[in-house]
Design a protein that fits this description.
This protein is mainly alpha-helical. The chain has helices spanning 2-22, 52-85, 90-124, and strands at 34-35, 38-39.
C-alpha cells in the first residue's frame, strides 16, 4: 500500500516538473530596452529592486501570508469547535488541542519567514 501511494506522489511530482519545464515560458528574451546600442534582457520576474532573488522571495512570502491567514483562522475556529463539542470525551478534546497547536505552529512559521528574509537581506547588505 505504501509503495503504491509513493508511486502516485512521485508521478504527480514528475508531471508538475515536466509541465514547469516545458510550459515555463522563455527564461530570457531580448526585447528589453536598448541603451548604448546594446539590447537589454527582459526581466521575467518584473523585479523592482536591485536583486531579483530577494524580490521573488518577498513575493512568495506575501502570497504565503495571504493564503495562510484564513487557513490559520479556520484551524483555530475548528480546534475550538472540536474542544467545545468534545463534552466528556477526552480523545476528541485532545484532538482539538492538537488542531490549535498545529495552527500556532503554522502561524509561527509564516511570521518567522518574513523575519528570516529581513535578516538575510541585512547580512548580505541589501536595503
Amino acid at each position: 500500500m505504501k509503495q503504491k501511494s509513493l508511486g502516485v506522489y512521485m508521478g504527480i511530482i514528475m508531471c508538475i516538473a515536466l509541465v514547469a519545464f516545458f510550459a515555463g515560458g522563455v527564461v530570457a528574451r531580448a526585447d528589453g530596452p536598448v541603451s548604448n546600442g546594446t539590447q537589454q534582457l527582459y526581466d521575467p520576474l518584473n523585479s523592482s529592486g536591485d536583486t531579483p532573488l530577494t524580490d521573488l522571495l518577498q513575493r512568495i512570502i506575501n502570497y504565503m501570508v495571504m493564503i495562510a491567514t484564513p487557513v490559520i483562522t479556520a484551524m483555530v475556529l475548528w480546534g475550538g469547535i472540536q474542544m467545545l463539542i468534545a463534552q466528556d470525551n477526552e480523545t476528541k478534546f485532545k484532538k482539538g488541542i492538537s488542531t490549535l497547536k498545529h495552527a500556532v505552529y503554522g502561524a509561527v512559521v509564516v511570521i518567522f519567514s518574513s523575519g528570516v528574509l529581513l535578516v538575510v537581506k541585512d547580512v548580505i547588505g541589501l536595503k
